[in-house]
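Handoff note, outgoing to incoming analyst
You'll be picking up this chain. Sequence as last confirmed:
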Amino acid sequence: MAGFASGDGPVEGSEASSASRQFRRSVDSLAEIFDFIEGFLAGVALPPAALHDVQFVVEELFTNQVKYAAGNPNPLLLELRRREGRLEVSLTDFDAEPFDPRSVPDPRVDLPIEERRPGGLGIYLSKKLVDGIEYEYVDRRSKTTFTKELR
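Most recent structure output, in case you need it:
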C-alpha cells in the first residue's frame, strides 16, 4: 500500500532528516518496510549490524501488531528520524489496544529449553539491540519509539 512520505532520507549538509510512511497491516509489507528503511539510511555510514538491528526490531514490533490486532483495518505508521548520529524509529498503531513492549517480562533464558515458556523472546532481543525504547498510548493511539546509535 502506498502511504505517504516526507523527507527522502538524509538531507545534504544537514544532521537531521525524517521520513514517514504508512504500511498495510500484513507481513507481506515487510519487504517494503525494509526497502523504506534502507532508502532512508542510504548514504549514511553505518555498520551492517546496525541496519540489521533496526530491521529486526521493526519487524518484531510490526509483526506483533499484525498478529495481535489482526482485526484492525488501519495501516501502521512508520516514522524515521535521524539526528546527530542517532536514529529514532516510531511505529504507531491507530484505534488500538495498549501494548507497551517495555512491560513484557524477560523470558528465563537461563532455563533449559524444555522448561521455558513460549513467547517474549523477540521483544527481549529487541530491547537488547536498541539504545532506548519509549511507549505512549493516547486516544487509542499506540506508539512505540526506539533509538539506535549509528556511530
